[in-house]
């Protein structure tokens, strides 16, 4: 199958010239959202939209760049601690809920479903155009977690191939999903099966045993410290569908053949994996969703300059780890930003990691069993 081509950028250019219709966001004061109407759904579920969220810049906050963040599977943006960290470094903060995800999911739509990861190019291009128009001439650093950490490199590779790198100046990936969990003997047959079934019953959920291990480690109702909407981010995650997993495996194959994203990248991951069906204290100090050895193995496929940093005792979402691991992760990001995109008046000083604020992220917990 030929690799998907970049989407047309005419709509993105139009977005850059139109003032977004910012409305109050579910996060409350200080956050607003803009709905991107994406038109007829190529996957046949009516019309689709994506939602761009902005942390409003306060009068005392200087801005010399911006961050655009993308979530993972079974997730949506609510990581206000990350937004505050970016703002403290002079970076305006935006986050995108992709089609059928979080704020953008409409009644009757299959949660987080997409048959081709390249379909996301439209909302990514349009969001980037809006951010760039709001901060002309300033560098934009992209950030993503888990599945978002696969989506963004593939998109950036297509942009670079089309001669469009700027205004993107860097990429920060938090436990990116670079391969399917399990042995090669398991991955190969499953991938072939998904390829066949996706042509027949693409939206059929896989019958995988449910697990709340990761969700329980995060949410305040169980063993965690983070507040998030359980309708938008269920503790068990959304069902994993045949067509979606087939799209993921195609994306993995493209990554494994080697990309050139055109910008430097920072890859954060835990130093250990712990797969389990039930929560224990070990789940608070390890990645319970992805195999961190796979992240380490495939990070070199991003192309350009890549820095990989294991964070001891980190969770799957490194920035939702316990305080010691979280603070180290923020310090690592701060150091990386200082080296590549220092604030004009910062003189290389690393900003302090934030201390309090709710946040979270979830990857495909069900896929961890495959």
TrEMBL record:
Pfam family, any one: Hydrolase_4
Domain spans labelled Serine aminopeptidase S33: 63-273
UniProt keywords, alphabetically: Hydrolase
Molecular function terms, GO-annotated: hydrolase activity
Region (Disordered): 339-370
Domain of life: Bacteria
Name of the protein this chain belongs to: Alpha/beta hydrolase
Organism: Streptacidiphilus fuscans
Upper classification of the organism: Bacteria, Bacillati, Actinomycetota, Actinomycetes, Kitasatosporales
């Amino acid at each position: 199958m030929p690799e998907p081509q970049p989407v047309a950028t005419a709509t993105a250019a139009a977005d850059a010239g139109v003032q977004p219709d910012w409305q109050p966001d579910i996060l409350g004061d200080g956050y607003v959202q803009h709905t991107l109407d994406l038109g007829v759904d190529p996957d046949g579920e009516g019309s689709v939209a994506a939602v761009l969220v902005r942390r409003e810049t306060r009068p005392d906050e200087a801005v010399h760049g911006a961050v655009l963040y993308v979530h993972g599977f079974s997730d949506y943006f609510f990581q206000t601690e990350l937004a505050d960290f970016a703002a403290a470094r002079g970076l305006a903060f935006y986050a995108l809920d992709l089609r059928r995800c979080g704020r953008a999911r409409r009644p009757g739509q299959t949660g987080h479903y997409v048959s081709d990861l390249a379909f996301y190019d439209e909302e990514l291009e349009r969001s980037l155009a809006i951010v760039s128009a709001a901060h002309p001439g300033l560098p934009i650093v992209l950030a993503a977690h888990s599945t978002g950490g696969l989506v963004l490199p593939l998109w950036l590779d297509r942009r670079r191939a089309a001669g469009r790198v700027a205004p993107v100046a860097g990429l920060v990936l938090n436990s990116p999903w670079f391969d399917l969990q399990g042995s090669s003997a398991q991955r190969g047959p499953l991938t072939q099966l998904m390829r066949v079934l996706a042509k027949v019953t693409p939206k059929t959920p896989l019958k995988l045993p449910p697990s709340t291990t990761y969700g329980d480690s995060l949410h305040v109702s169980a063993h965690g410290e983070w507040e998030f909407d359980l309708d938008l981010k269920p503790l068990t995650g959304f069902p994993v569908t045949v067509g979606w997993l087939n799209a993921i495996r195609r994306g993995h194959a493209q990554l494994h053949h080697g990309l050139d994203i055109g910008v430097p990248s920072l890859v954060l991951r835990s130093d250990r994996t712990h797969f389990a069906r039930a929560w224990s204290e070990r789940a608070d100090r390890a990645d319970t969703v992805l195999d961190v050895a796979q992240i380490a193995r495939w990070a070199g496929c991003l192309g350009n300059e890549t820095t990989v940093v294991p964070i001891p005792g980190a969770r799957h979402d490194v920035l939702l780890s316990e305080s010691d691991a979280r603070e180290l992760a923020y310090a690592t990001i701060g150091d990386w930003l200082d080296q590549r995109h220092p604030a004009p008046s910062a003189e290389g000083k690393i900003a302090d990691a934030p201390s309090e604020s709710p946040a979270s992220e979830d990857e495909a917990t069900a896929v961890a069993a495959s």
